Amino acid sequence: MQLLEAQSVTKVFGSGVLSKDRLVAVDEVSLTINEEKPSIISIAGESGSGKTTLARLLLGMIQPSDGNIRFRGKDLATMDRSERREFRRQVQAIFQDPFEVYNPFYRIDQVLTTPVRKFKLAGSKEEEQRLIEESLQLAGLRPNETLGRYPHQLSGGQRQRIMVARALLLNPRVILADEPVSMVDASLRATILESLMKLKRDLGISLIYITHDLTTAYQISKDIYILYRGSVAEVGSVEQVIKDPQHPYTKLLVNSIPLPDPDIRWGSQNDVDQAPLTSGLKSAHGHGCKFANRCPFVMAECHEKQPPLYRTHEDRAVACFLYKNEPSVGGREMAESLAA
Amino acid sequence: MLSNVKTKPVDVRTKTRADRILDVRNLRVSYQTGGGQVRAVNDVSFFLRPSERLGLVGESGSGKTTMALSLMRLLQSPAVIEGGQVLLDGVDLLSLSEEEMRRARLADIALIPQGAMNSLNPMLKVGEQLRDAVTAHMDSGGKTSREARIFDVLESVELSRNVVNAYPHELSGGMKQRVCIAMGILLKPKVIIADEPTSALDVVVQRQVMETLGRVQSELGASIILVGHDMGLMAQFVDRVGVMYGGKLVEVSPVREIFKDPLHPYTQLLIGSLPTLESKENFKGISGMTPSLLTPPTGCMFHPRCPQVLPHCQVEIPPLVEIKPDRWVACHLYNGS
Amino acid sequence: MNTATVQNNTRPNSGVNIWKTARVVLGFFNNNRLFTFGVLLLLALFLFGYIGEMTTSRKMADMGAAKLNLRPSAENLLGTDGLGRDMFTVMVIGIPNTFKIGFLAGAVGVLIGALMGLIAGFYKGYTDTIFSSFADVMLVIPTLAILITVSAYVRVVTVEIMAVIVGLLSWPLPARLIRSQTLSLRERLFVDVARLSGQNDFEIIIFQILPNLTAYLAASFVGAVSGGILASVGLEVLGLGPQNVPTIGRTLYYAFNYSALFKGMWWWWGPPLVTLAIIFTGLFMMSVSLDKYANPRLQGSTHN
Amino acid sequence: MRGLDLGYFIRRIGMFLLVIFVAASFNFMIPRLAPGNPIGAITSRMSNASAGIENGQAMFEAYRERFGLDDPLYIQYTKYMWNTLRLDFGESLSAYPAEVWDIIGPAIGWSISLIGVSVLITFVLGILIGALLAWKGTPGILKSLLSLTMIGGVLPYYLLAMLLLYFFAFTAHVLPMSGAVESGMARELSWPFIKSAFRHAILPASSIILTSLGGWALSMRGLMVNTIGEDYMLLAEAKGLRKSRILWRYAIRNAIPPQLMHLAIALGHVVSGAILVEIVFSYPGLGYQLYMSIVNSDYTVIQGITLILAVSVGLAVLIIDLVYPRLDPRVTYVAESSG
Fold this sequence. Notes:
The complex is a heterotetramer of chains A (340), B (337), C (304) and D (339). Chain B is an alpha/beta fold.
């Protein structure tokens, strides 16, 4: 059974009556999470790649312009109240800035008691207290060091773990983590990633890890989706995509990672280094590959039509005409095969 | 001598070695908060060689930005420089008059600020902001040479001349950061302080901007202090790294050595926690919390979190000493040798 | 796990701890001397009205209740006016009436404004366009002119109707302030977290957004009260507004019309003038100190 | 063209027309909706009185015609709006057969010169005081002195007007008590006329300036504090700019645009805002005329003046809105796109 699926979802902003500019934030992206085989999937991309929009689509916070999001086979758009409630419980999220997620007006208890009360998880005060303490301990926190405090009295790491505890209260099947460590210090980053890993390992919770940082994506996840301006540029197992990138954009990205090793200098993989500086003038609307005007390997056909995904390996596909000799594959098919 | 500052008699004791373009001695900065006095920079000493790239890393609250700004005396009101010396080419910047310091800024020591997104005045065209900067340091005339210099620096940071007519909001983040770099090298300063110059940029643009910065710096022969928290960026860019923890400098070493053989236990844990493409699913964090500067621990700042803590660590503050050539560390583990 | 310590740590927020709340409130007043002083000024004036009323008879405020044009004396503490009314009694009755108009007008204005601002800011889009256009139009139409016109036609009004009319015209300013704050608050991540925790739009507006607007609401309210008193006294000085009820403005109207200024009858125009000066000083102090909370950057500059 | 696009321009003009429309509708509705039917009341009062006075019958007819009292409401409304559109306010009722315009016209001139100038002076002073209060380089003594300007704000302007009148005109006799010029003086552009107009303007202008200066200074201070906290101020200092240059070109320059929006509204409101000052000094501006027409139940003049007020505010805001992109380059008014 597929737990959570995005089926060729597209999200267009600014298609109102008054505005002329349309922004295709997410462009026919498919993604699948299998209920029986929990895994960690990374969605990586730079700012403007549509990764946060995709996250909000998956959480049902915004509606897709085209395509659909399915939870256990059922389209979110056609769900009734109780089905939506169930979806809400099972698909949870943690966010980038562990300070911003707290309402400064309340003690941190409020973010924990609200879900318990709204979803009627506990029959009594005592049960509520017990549930909260359990989930805090699961997230690696001591209840008496955290409850009753205001967010600014806690460290960044504690704040982020309380968000994990909040999600765990609802006993979800999927947690979407939107840049969970980009705002915390290096020394805490590892600890938080460790506890996210444990959720999958010990509780069987699937994780969608959204990030701009390929190194942590490599470390934590099994599969990765590289997004470029709303489209999937390359998808596959992290081992292959990051250790041996095929799409010119992925190569550029991997090549630009500032590795903490003075002996591996930037640009050691030299073949994409001639990429022009222009950070992406918009190409003719709707035509051609979105990366064409930055691509050192650009060919005539790149300007004519958007490349489909070509399956270059069993568990990897690339949207680039350089690989047009390989068989093409649909986004959904690829996503399902990775999840299987 | 500073090019723009009238020659000042230099105390014999402050006479510095010729191989140190910038020599910071016992710098102390504190600020007053509602809860009491906080010492953000605590007795920090280091030096910078001509044409050298020094990285200053630290987590949030380690005092790295406060220190960078205090070198240029740009601290805002509750923060006060309590003492120490900042010798730029032998002249103590902290002893200059306001007007002398103003003239030294940009001409001798320049800042490339954090958050280029908001560092340009949104109401003025880029050209006007560059012109303002040159004019502030000119006593008279020279309009054509001024314009020529502006086009020069724009070209050297790979920007088109047309950006002089653009407002900041019309530029991309990377372009704005390039404008800030152009601003920094406008008057060929001896020292450039770059405070997290790429923290808001994507990795691809970050790399391009840093490569530009590196190139103009070596063309100019200026020294650079790169302030930041990203060890990866340090590994790629600098010659030496200084590690700050709780307002103190705990280690200063050449970049290769610090990654291969970190000395201070904090540096060791920090390097160990970095994600690499070498290992999967293997996370090593540093347990414990960053010290509160309001109620700092006694002795060594790191002793509450230190796995190799010695009995006298919580009593005695370890000084920063050179234990091997060019390797400075502030830790009692190395006191004996 | 030692549950007893946990209980101790977590209970205070569920049961309302009066002492803790009192400490917080007292702490606020202690940290905001200016605000406290403003409140005390208004409170003193208010008490003067209420306590004063017990010492005198309402009848003394009727025309011809006393001799005309008497200087202040032991019998008539503030003298009598040219219509034979005891000025002390007039003030004692007038002050609460003026307060009533101001507070009622402020409450009406802020209530409508907050509602409009919250809805427009939270739902954005077309709802926002309609609400904000309406507010902008109302903001631009000169309020006092409308009030004068209305009052010119509606010759007889009560204190309450007057207050409501003034209030109905004062909502656009709070609405704009609340709207712009709501627009930024709704993008904050804690709104997303609340939604994930199962709260609906209504609960998010009431429990997540509204509490963060306390400073703005308070500042708006003080502003609206101040504007309401300014406008209503202005109308009364023109001879518009409530006719047979003593208010501060009405007293000034008589003083002005009977040339008290030029007859040297300072006890006629002096007390209402001083009263207004006290009211506006108090409100001004409150709004300056509230500004600090509504505009956090000001905090740094005042604390140096 | 940067800044203005046609769609925005049209929307702004539409907004302006909407303001006028709403104001005119208010004007139409208020006398008709008000309890006690004031129009009906005045009609009967006038028909009784008209017999006795010269022109009485003609005036009554003009009134009936003006308000179209015999027509159904929607016809009245259409007629009224059509007349408004042509800026035809009809004849004054109390000074029949004078046109409403004959009364409003000179009043507009006096109001603009007295109040417009006072507000502009206040605006400029307020900006300077507010800027200096927020600037950390301002000497402490100067700051305390400047803070004194806040005191004026605690008195309503009309009360200060009365006090000024009492002390300077009534008691000390140094300045005239009422009017805009010496009575009987011909309106011509001569030196004595200007001198007299100036002397008459001092007290009313002072009462406006002194009471509103504090408010302007306070809001400017707030804007300055925000501006000074911006990142670009740090870079400006790091560039080695002179303090004075940072103050003027980076801080004040950037804090002014939002203040101009307030100025537009204030300028538009001047007339209505200072009605009471004009009344206290019997200054023959719009406010005073409005008061007189209320006293005389001259409804055509009331309607004319309130509409003029609405148009003036609407116009002021419209102009500022259209030039705003020139003042703040970030505001481009191109249809909002997501980003």
